[in-house]
Design a protein that fits this description.
There is one protein chain. This protein has helices at residues 2-17, 58-65, 138-144, 148-162, 170-181, 282-292, 298-303, 389-400, 446-463, 478-486, 503-509, 556-575, and strands at 35-37, 44-47, 49-52, 71-75, 105-109, 115-119, 132-133, 187-190, 197-200, 202-203, 226-230, 233-240, 248-255, 261-266, 276-279, 295-296, 310-311, 317-319, 323-330, 342-345, 350-356, 409-416, 423-426, 437-439, 512-513, 539-541. The protein is of the alpha/beta class. It has a seven-stranded mixed β-sheet. A six-stranded parallel β-sheet has the order 1-11-4-3-15-26. β12 and β13 form a beta hairpin. α2 (58-65) packs parallel to α12, α5 packs across α9 and α9 packs across α11. It is globular.
């Protein structure tokens, strides 16, 4: 029974992990008359605003600015619409076996050894996540210095299009009741607000299981004021340096899918002196773009033969990723397909969430475990240099023979707030298509590790709770579940023999990402409180790279809100009147 149960658990763990990945689409593509392939772009064009990155912040930002000005939105990936594999909740995982240059998810591995992914599709990270929608805490909004009224209105603007109340079925209900039974109280019901206790949050999946994303917010755009170019890879931002007090951003150089170079410039003149370039390329892409454009640590730029525009040593610094750890619980009963719906928000700084379902084979009869598949080298039971083609082939063969029941069950997971631990990002090459090198230093600070341990202790209590009992085999103890969890290749870090007896070691050895990485262009060091890049003019960064710590339990709602919020702020500043309503 031991070998069979081990194989059962490895397959289940592999499959269920894929729940975090999907990507954005609607059943039918919207009639966006302003969306074109970059190959159709002229060699030179002029706009009031140029936005680099059509992601979770870039789409609402572009839609807002287009109401009064001409806007160019440059997206390095394609449109999210029309692909059945990216439309439905039940089709998770299939894209992550696709490691081609056209995949909407670009895989990278941090220097910590944790496998991760970044978006390469219109709609950005909202196209790759588990769909959970929840706002930042009121205290977060106050600490950042945002206007609370405009923040509320901006959230509501987003929510009219992309946010829904999820259906609560058996597994999620059992986790909710287990959280309450073990003391994560009070019960706050369904709410978008970040409140201590247990709640049901929103989802960007509607009741039919179809994903709605930041790309859908472009329906708000003025079609005559917006141009969206797909497969437009920005190579650098150009600066005027003559006749100005300090470098002034004035254009971008990008290439289309055929490699042809194009240039876009800001309109010039007395009426367009407020025109700006805005980088919204995400926590990896934004600091990378600044460095490729000559804004970053001087010695690092020199090493890559990049002309220095501004020595800015904090670009790429203080990178963070909220570590996630989880326990897989095989279920004697069938469970519904569910992503993140319930969250327990603790006072000690850990968030407890859950996911379940039998679709975690990646929605494929070929049993492709997506990003966690040995087909793409996921075989962390051995060190990286021992992941031979023979070892990978053996794992693929073993998983292909497993029965459907091996995927029955789900995860209960914890993510820590913050985090306190930080790392850094550096260029590997001057090619914007290449991933930069990034180190997150998971659990470097003891406070992060302690929060993980406390979160895992809550999970243990939930598994043993009366409310959750029907979804757990009586003969499987929590220590046995932890031991089985340790057998699956979660990341590239070596395992330690004492992990099953030490929650501290368990946290370190099974650390995963929940795709909430941020930093690299933070407020106060790289940009000011209006998100203007310090030391240069006509350039802002507006996205999650500016966060000092992750907002709420899941950041996507706040990133979308920020795009709308700052779009309004920029318009109000330029037009001189209140546009928030």
């Amino acid at each position: 029974m031991g070998v069979g149960l081990c194989r059962f658990t490895l397959a289940a763990f592999a499959g269920v992990l894929v729940f975090f990945h999907g990507f954005c689409s609607s059943e039918k593509a919207p009639n966006y008359s302003f969306m074109h392939q970059a190959t159709t772009a002229p060699a030179i064009a002029y706009y009031d605003y140029i936005i680099v990155g059509g992601g979770t912040a870039g789409c609402p930002l572009a839609a807002t600015l287009s109401q009064n000005y001409s806007v160019l939105l440059l997206e390095r990936g394609g449109a999210p619409y029309g692909n059945p594999n990216i439309t439905n909740m039940g089709s998770f995982g299939a894209p992550f076996a696709d490691v081609s240059p056209t995949s909407p998810a670009q895989r990278f591995v941090s220097e910590d050894g944790v496998i991760n992914s970044r978006a390469r599709v219109l709609g950005g990270g909202s196209c790759l996540n588990a769909g959970f929608y929840t706002r930042a805490a009121a205290a977060y909004v106050e600490a950042v210095g945002w206007d609370s009224g405009m923040v509320k209105e901006s959230y509501e603007w987003v929510e009219k299009v992309v946010a829904f109340e999820p259906p609560m079925l058996q597994w999620q209900s059992a986790v909710r009741d287990g959280l309450l039974e073990v003391g994560v109280v009070p019960y706050n019901g369904f709410t978008y607000d970040h409140i201590y206790g247990t709640k049901v949050g929103g989802s960007i999946f509607d009741r039919d299981g179809h994903r709605h994303t930041a790309a859908d917010l472009l329906q708000y755009a003025n079609p005559t004021g917006l141009t969206v170019l797909l497969h437009a890879t920005v190579h650098k931002i150009t600066f005027r340096r003559k006749g100005v007090v300090r470098p002034m951003a004035h254009g971008v150089v990008f290439r289309d899918a055929l490699g042809k170079k194009h240039k876009a410039y800001l309109k010039r003149g007395s009426k367009t002196k407020s025109s700006e370039i805005i980088i919204s390329a995400g926590a990896l892409g934004s600091p990378q773009t600044l460095m490729l454009s000559g804004v970053g640590p001087a010695q690092h730029l020199k090493a890559h033969n990049i002309t220095i525009v501004l020595d800015q040593p904090m670009v790429g610094q203080r990178m963070s990723d909220n570590p996630m750890n989880a326990i897989f619980v095989p279920s004697p009963l069938p469970v519904e397909v569910s992503l993140i719906q319930v969250v327990g928000i603790t006072h000690f700084g850990s968030y407890i969430e859950a996911a379940s379902g039998e679709n975690f084979a990646g929605g494929s009869s070929q049993r492709d475990f997506g990003m966690f598949s040995p087909k793409i080298g996921q075989l962390a039971t051995v060190p990286p240099k021992q992941r031979t083609p023979e070892a990978i082939a053996k794992a693929i063969d073993s998983m292909s023979k497993l029965e459907e029941t091996a995927f029955r069950g789900g995860f209960i997971l914890e993510k820590i707030m913050g985090p306190v631990s930080t790392g850094h990002l550096e260029l590997r090459t001057r090619n914007p298509n290449d991933n930069p090198s990034v180190t997150f230093n998971y659990f470097k600070e003891p406070q992060d590790l302690q929060r993980c341990v406390q979160g895992m202790q809550v999970i243990e209590k939930i598994i043993d709770s009366k409310a959750f009992s029907k979804f757990k085999y009586d003969y499987l103890t929590v220590p046995e579940l932890i031991n089985m969890t340790l057998n699956f290749p979660v990341n590239l870090l070596p395992k330690h023999d004492n992990a099953s007896g030490s929650l501290e070691q368990f946290c370190k050895d099974t650390v995963m990402t929940i795709w909430h990485y941020h930093g690299g262009c933070q407020v106060g060091t790289v940009v000011d409180h209006d998100y203007k890049v310090l030391g240069v003019d006509a350039l802002r960064v507006i996205d999650g790279s500016t966060f000092n710590y992750s907002p709420g339990t899941n950041p996507q709602a706040t990133v979308m809100m920020l795009g709308r919020y700052m779009g309004l702020k920029i318009l109000m500043e330029r037009l001189g009147r209140d546009l928030s309503k």
